[in-house]
Amino acid sequence: FLSIIELDSSVTMQDIVLCYGETYLGQSFTNDTTFYQVETNYQGCDSTIATAIKVSTLDTFDIYGPMRICAGPFGSTILSVETYAEYKWSNGSLQQSSTFSQAGNYAVTVTDELGCTADQVFNIPFVELSMAIESTDPICHNDSTGQINIVQVSGGAEPYFYSINGGTDYSANPSFNQLSAEDPIYEVFVADSNDCFITEAIT
Fold first, then answer.
1. Nearest to 126 by CA among 76, 59, 183
2. pLDDT tens readout for residues 88-103
3. Left, alpha or beta for 21 (phi > 0: left; psi -120 to 50: alpha)?
4. What is the rounded distance in angstroms from the CA atom of residue 160 to the CA atom of residue 142?
């Protein structure tokens, strides 16, 4: 991006923007600066060119948010980036944050205040959990000898966390003992480290 303003016959001012990795007259710049050149014309007169160089530091950037789509009723995720002048997600969004409801490959391009751009390509996987449960009823209707054991979990990312009260309280232990028949239904929840979960009711 180059604009030239001629102040008089001896001094010329110009502005230039260098995006990350670009050079000016074979030189690299890491900070904003003014670069001076003295040129002599065919008549032997000297003139000074003062180049105000603005340097963009935009190279890579981070994407924030859960990078997955969980199976189930909450199968979407919201991703965002840091603050820039413009945004363009490959799902059509032009906002700083974007909602994704399908797994797949995506990209996002950001533009800073100097007009320089950077992009990232990323994958959002689909995560589905499965589990196997073994349960034992209490021996008598008024005792607490019942058990629920989540004996196998697959899918998602370890570690897993377990609950039998609908996700209100979680434990790292997949076995629950001393259960009574007074609670007619136990809502078994298993959540992985990315907050995807699976649930099953045990009566």
1. 76
2. 999 999 999 999 999 9
3. left
4. 32
> What residue ranges in 22-66 does DSSP mark as E strands?
33-40, 46-55, 63-64
Q: In sequence order, which residues have a C-beta less than 8 Å from that of residue 81 and are 6 or more positions away? A: 61, 62, 63, 64, 87, 96, 108, 110
For the stretch 31-78, pLDDT in tens is 999 988 887 766 667 788 899 999 999 999 999 999 999 998 778 999
**What is the spatial distance between Cα 3 and Cα 13, in angstroms, rounded to a whole number?**
9
**pTM, whole model, 2 decimals?**
0.76
Whole-number Å distance between alpha carbons of 146 and 143: 8
199 phi and psi angles, rounded to 5 deg: -135, 150
What amino acid occupies position 10? Answer: S
What integer pLDDT is reported at residue 73 of this predicted model? 77
CA atoms within 13 A on the CB side of 59: 6
Q: Tokens 């050079």 — which residue?
A: 23
- pLDDT the model gives residue 2: 52
**How confident is the model over 4-41, as pLDDT tens digits?**
444 445 778 899 999 999 999 999 999 999 988 887 76
Tokens 């003014």, residue located:
34
pLDDT of residue 12: 84
Beta-strand ranges (E) seen in 71-196 are 77-81, 86-89, 97-100, 104-111, 117-124, 126-127, 130-136, 146-154, 161-163, 175-179, 186-191
CB 52: neighbour CB atoms within 10 A? Answer: 14
